[in-house]
Amino acid sequence: MPETRFGDRRAHTIENDLLQVTVTVEGGHIAEIKHKATAVNPLWTPPWQSIEPSTYDREKHPEYGADAESQLLSGIIGHNLCLDLFGSPSAEEATAGITVHGEASVVPYEITSTENKLTARCRMPLAQLAFERIIRLKPGDSQIAISETVENLGRMDRPIAWTQHVTLGPPFLEKGATQFRVPGTKSRTLEGADFSWPMLPHPDGPKEDLQLFTNEPSSGGFTTHLLDPNHHQAYFLAWSPSSKVLFGYMWKRVDFPWIGIWEENYSRRNSPWNGRTLTRGMEFGVSPIPESRRKMIDRHTLFGTPCYRWIPALSKVSVDYKAFIRTADSI
Question: By C-alpha distance, which of 183, 182, 200, 199 is closest to 191?
Answer without folding.
Answer: 200
